[in-house]
Design goal:
Helix content is 37%, strand content 17%. By secondary structure, the protein is of the alpha+beta class.
Length: 148
């Protein structure tokens, strides 16, 4: 949901409409998740899927999804809300498109990768542990001490 910006153009009225729609959907309990991907922060959605042990399948071949752009969100919701979301976006002249589904046992992006969720979870946790060990000198992340 939102707009792709090339160069320095940014439609502030559209940004306000997007904010209003997202806040309305949140207030109504429509969204299961919402991630700001305006500045290539889509990895938070991947992290959320891994940490919550929920797979996904995305098809991003039709238009770049993970490029930087102004005021864009990646949202998930129950399929029963799809028509209401479509009509709200159309009525308020905000671009939105379906790119996939949440669920399953893998993280799949069409034409790029398909990783079993358990493999992704192991890689994510192992990477964080390794970084902590190298940068903080910890052999066990539970050993971290705070000094004031």
């Amino acid at each position: 949901v939102g707009q792709v910006v090339t160069g320095t153009e940014l439609d502030l009225e559209r940004c306000c409409r997007v904010n209003d729609i997202i806040l309305e959907f949140i207030d109504r309990g429509v969204l299961a998740s919402c991630h700001d991907i305006s500045h290539n922060v889509w990895l938070s959605a991947v992290e959320s899927a891994i940490c919550n042990r929920i797979g996904f399948s995305l098809d991003v071949t039709s238009k770049p999804l993970f490029a930087q752009g102004g005021h864009r969100f990646l949202v998930s919701f129950a399929s029963k809300h799809l028509e209401m979301i479509r009509s709200t976006l159309k009525k308020r002249q905000v671009e939105g498109r379906e790119i996939g589904v949440v669920g399953g046992e893998s993280l799949t992006v069409t034409d790029l990768f398909a990783i079993p969720l358990t493999t992704a979870q192991g890689g994510w946790v192992d990477t964080i542990t390794t970084i902590m060990e190298k940068t903080m000198g910890l052999s066990d992340p539970g050993q971290q001490k705070i000094s004031l």
